[in-house]
Amino acid sequence: MPLLYVIAAIFAVGLVGYVAGMMRATTTVSGRANPWHSRSGYYGWYVLLWAMLPALALTLLWSVTFPVYSTRTVFASLPASSPTTESSSLTMSTVGLLQSGLRSVSAAELAEVQSGKLKVRDLLLSRGVPLASDPAPYLVAAAVKANALDDLSRAVVTFGGIGLAVIGLLFGLSRVKPELRSRNLVERVGLLGLAAASAVAILTTVGIVFSMLFETIHFFQLVPASNFFLGTVWDPRFSAAGQDAVTEGQFGLLPLLWGTLFISFVALVVAVPVGLFSAIYMSEYATPTVRGFVKPLLEILAGIPTIVYGFFALVTFGPFLRDIGALAGLDISATSVLTAGLIMGVMLIPFVSSLSDDIINAVPQSLRDGAYALGATKSETIKQVILPAALPGIVGAILLAGSRAIGETMIVVLAAGIAANLTINPLEPVTTITVKIVSQLTGDLEFNSPQTLVSFALGLTLFFFTLCLNIYALYIVRKYREQYD
Amino acid sequence: MAVQSSVSSTAPSLALSAKLDAGRLRARYAAEWRFRAYGIAAILFGLTFLAILFFSIISRGLPAFQQSTFNLPIVLDPAVITPSGQRLENELFMADYTALANKAIVATLGVDANSKPAVRQATQLLSNGVDVQIRSAILANPNLIGQTITLPLLADGNVDSVMKGAFDRTIPEERRKLNDKQLQLLDTAAAKGILTKSFNWGLFTFGASSKPETAGIGVALIGSFFMMLTVLLLAVPLGVAAAVYLEEFAPKNFFTDVIEVNINNLAAIPSIVFGLLGLAIFINLFGMPRSASIVGGLVLALMTLPTIIIATRAAIGAVPPSIREAAVGVGASKMQAITHHVLPLAIPGILTGTIIGLAKALGETAPLLMIGMVAFVVEAPTTPLEPATALPVQIFMWATAAERGFVERTSGATMILLLFLITMNLIAIVLRRRYERRW
Question: Å from B150 to nearest chain A CA?
């Protein structure tokens, strides 16, 4: 039975268990009004959990681990001297094809094949499974073995899974007695489930760190770390799929890092003053009507996907800047630090302004009142009282915006350029870490080449950069909030 | 320290100080006025940019919703479609429908059928995709063979530009995509009503194509739908469960502090890193299919999870403790108090957070590029395991194409994406305004 049906059957058994448990818990015992500890639904859940949890655990564990075991056994059964072992994925895909082909072959035909009377290739072609060449006999044997293992696995899942579900149901049902504290037991399982759900967040982080760490270590085995961290030239060349010799390339991080920081700096130069001033105006000057109207409008900027900003930069803003530059006698390329940075700055405006808005609002009214009482004007109060008081929080907001700018991808992919330049001229194109991650991973590259693996090293670098910025910024903001609570 | 000095300098001469103060006051008021002006300027800057962005996208994208078609009477000649005389499936599929369309346009436009250059000029006006149009009409109803039907056949991308007035006729003929003769044919066809513009349904049904007139966001819409479904089914239950645990049950210890910091961090990690996670874990380790919407959905679900957890925690935290205490007071367990009372009261907040998270996931591009969703998918996928693209990825793929038809379609697709996002955000705002309770 396919896995999905087995799981559906286990669910069905669980449902039966629920109904059975509930019905049993509504029977009355003579002499007592209601002897049951919990409401009947909890007995139903109790039986359902007994029926489903062990069975599902077995089924899922088996279907995850067994394929690994069977692939390994089949592969180990191949003769070590076989000419195709060096390209193991090709061998395994041939075995896979043979497997599906041999499913449609009768036992008699199989015996003929094994005795060499019948060519496998011709036989399978007549069943609609084309093979590139006539496979070696040991491959046929491996496919037969793999099919046998698969049959075994399927039987285990079908009978084991459903059997365990039925056994669990009967066991659970046998324990349903008035004194059973089913609510407490069911709720304990529920609590475990909740805790497991919150562990997914941890697992995600662990997954991110480890997946990138392994590939990065792999990368540093092929390319020395000094080449990556201290290199000033980014020229990875490229190795196409199937090419054996690894083409030497240069993987200097510095030009990419420079490009990333340069563009982020330009973006912050736009976003910080504009965002801060709009936050100040909105929280200190604007009437509630204006505020209720303008704030959602500015927040639309935050809701626009970055690909839309990137497209706008590419087709409208870049050419516009280039034309302006031509009028002023400047040579601005359509994709440049300025184009990407300005657009990214606009994207960050609502980010800076809504965070600063929160922070400015958190400054106690008494500080304002004190300043007004001394005769200060509104702007003097803001400049000399509110902003100094809110400064740590605003710095935190700017750091968070900076971390967002460093990790931003689609705007720079479309508007920053692809040439890795070490330049201080904002009118020239540069490239960033994220652009290179995208360009190294989209295309038909061989996965184990340094050209592809470098994107994981870049990703890890990016991850640690933003992680440090985030942790520090969140720490500042948290600290600041506590100050006025 | 203007405030202090104006207070302390009253002694010497009242008249002089009044004069000085008046000057200083004017300066201070001017500073006040300037400061205010900076604030207004900052807001106007943001709003102006927003207006320009929307104007630019809408003005470029509106033409994408119209498509030029030739309404031609096509003779469905049995000799061409079924040379063997029998209606074989294979033959119906492979027949030379382009020849039928070419014959129709040559006849209708009154071109000399014996002059090869003239015929070529006329047939160039039709899209390459017309054979598929005729074929699907015939496969839907094979009894049409032998009859003459009028089909709105797609016009070539250049013809479409002419119809939308975007074709520059002043360019010298040898550098133009269409020559004088062809333009003349088009003008007469348009005058006779053979060549017309109509609503571009194809934009919503076609998949990837190298020709703008047969390219659409059909595959991308289906892919995005599957992904949103995956996010909804995975991220919402997990996120709500995690939030309930952290807000109501978790003991205050080092472990929960780690989870707390970790969730806030996950919300700020660059999205492209999630794509790398998907590539390394889901595709390389678990061997899931590349470009499939299920993998995209999983990656986006992990990305949306922190947003939903944070929103749900805020919503649960806003329910006053008295509700829990009342429930526990009448004999409910803590779990019952939460599932029967706290969660139902927190639903508006949870929904708002979910919708905002979904909107963010819908517009996300970078992680999907990592898991290979840039594939050229022509056929609409029917399950989440088949290759698909997503709406923002489709925009990315079209954005770098130079042809006018693609620029138009990129903006059109952007308009559709923005429409979805704005609708979702509006729903979130309405939900928040209408159902959120203040305690």
Answer: 39
The token pair at A223 is: 């390319």
Q: What percent of chain B has pLDDT over 90?
A: 37
Nearest to A278 among B36, B43, B425 (CB): B43
Crossing angle between the packed helical segments A337-362 and A318-327, to the nearest 10 degrees: 110
User: What confidence score (pLDDT) does residue B415 get?
Assistant: 94
Question: Which of A16, A21, A52, A58 has its CA nearest to residue A38?
Answer: A21
Helices (H) and strands (E) in chain A, counts: 20, 2
Choosing among B53, B54, B391, B422, which should be mutated to test the A contact, i.e. which has the most A CBs within 10 A? Answer: B53
DSSP secondary structure of A404-431: HHHH--HHHHHHT-S-------TTS---
Q: How far does the CA of residue B31 sit from the closest CA of chain A (Å)? A: 8
Cα–Cα distance measured from residue A318 to residue A333, given in angstroms and rounded to the nearest whole number? 8
Residue type at position B255: F
Q: Is A71 at the interface with chain B, CB within 8 A?
A: no
**B150: three-class secondary structure by DSSP:** strand
Contacts of A403 (CB under 8 A, 6+ apart): A465, A466, A469, A470, A473, B268
CA distance B247 to B338: 11
Please name the residue that has the structure tokens 């909890």.
Answer: A42
Q: Is the separation of the CB atoms in B364 and A305 below 8 Å?
A: yes
pLDDT value of position B229: 94
- For residue A422, is it left (φ>0), alpha (ψ between -120 and 50) or beta? beta
CA dist., res. B347 & res. B362, Å (int):
22
Contact A476, A455 (CB under 8 A): no
Angle subtended at Cα A133 by Cα A132 and Cα A137, rounded to the nearest 5 degrees: 130
**B262 contacts A201? CB cut-off 8 A:** yes
Separation of alpha carbons B51 and B27, rounded Å? 35
DSSP conformational letter for B214: G
Report ipTM (2 d.p.): 0.88
* Amino acid residing at B90: N
**Which of B61, B36, B374, B3 minimizes the C-alpha distance to A380?**
B3
Contact A445, A467 (CB under 8 A): no
Question: Taking a C-beta distance cutoff of 8 angstroms, is the pair A271, A351 a contact?
Answer: yes
> Which candidate from A195, A276, A301 shows the least CB-CB separation from B245?
A195
Q: Per-residue confidence of chain B (439 residues) as pLDDT tens digits? A: 444 444 444 455 667 777 777 888 899 999 999 999 999 999 999 999 999 999 999 998 888 898 888 888 888 888 877 777 777 777 777 788 888 888 888 888 888 888 888 888 888 888 888 888 888 888 888 888 888 888 888 888 888 888 888 788 888 888 888 888 888 888 888 888 888 888 888 888 888 888 888 888 999 999 999 999 999 999 999 999 999 999 999 888 888 888 888 888 888 899 999 999 998 888 888 878 888 899 999 999 999 999 999 999 999 999 999 999 999 999 999 999 999 999 999 998 899 899 999 999 999 999 999 888 887 888 888 888 888 999 999 999 898 887 778 888 999 999 999 999 999 988 888 888 887 777 6
* Separation between Cα atoms, residue A177 and residue A179, nearest integer Å: 5
Inter-residue contact A247 to A238 (CB < 8 Å): yes
Compute how many other C-beta atoms are within 10 angstroms of the C-beta atom of residue A123.
Answer: 19
Please state, as a whole number, how many other Cβ atoms lie within 10 Å of the Cβ of residue A378.
Answer: 17
Does A65 lie at the interface with B, CB-CB under 8 angstroms? no
